[in-house]
Design goal:
Elements: H1 5-11, E1 18-20, E2 39-41, H2 52-65, H3 67-75, E3 82-89, H4 102-110, E4 113-120
Parallel strand pairs: 3-4
Antiparallel strand pairs: 1-2
Helix pairs in contact: 2-4
């Protein structure tokens, strides 16, 4: 199914942090490779990669306050899914356990949103550098509000 992303964005009050159109190259360096599908991203939290608890709290507030707009998006012709993506820094541990509160899962489920948990490696520090390593994205993914 084709999604008219421009028509959808004009019909909702939520403002996207990014939008993309079907047929554009997924990666600029590979114009003949995989192509994008139409869609949009919305900031759910401005919390950093090391603030997973804040991201979850912000997501609950966002889902509660933006429920009508999200429902409109999810019911729009051509929309085949949505997800909340939580980006966190990858820790150097044997086991990394993270949980989601039932309230967040209930809200996301009631809006037919999937939940994704993305771990990003820390950038390696250069020997002369005194600043701590920082998380970076491997993809152009927005942090959610």
């Amino acid at each position: 199914m084709n999604l008219d992303i421009d028509k959808l964005l004009a019909a909702i009050s939520l403002r996207p942090s990014m939008s993309f159109r079907k047929g554009k190259p997924l990666f600029k360096l590979r114009p003949g490779g995989k192509k994008k599908r139409s869609g949009a991203g919305f900031v759910v939290s401005n919390a950093g990669f090391d603030q997973f608890d804040k991201q979850k709290k912000d997501a609950i507030v966002f889902l509660k306050t933006k429920k009508a707009g999200i429902r409109k998006i999810m019911n729009w012709s051509g929309v085949d899914g949505g997800e909340l993506d939580f980006g966190v820094k990858q820790r150097d541990v044997m086991v990394q356990c993270n949980s989601f509160p039932a309230e967040l899962l209930r809200l996301a489920g009631s809006l037919a949103l999937d939940i994704e948990f993305s771990q990003y490696p820390l950038m390696r520090e250069k020997k002369k550098r005194k600043k701590p390593a920082t998380a970076r994205t491997l993809h152009n993914l927005p942090r959610r509000k």
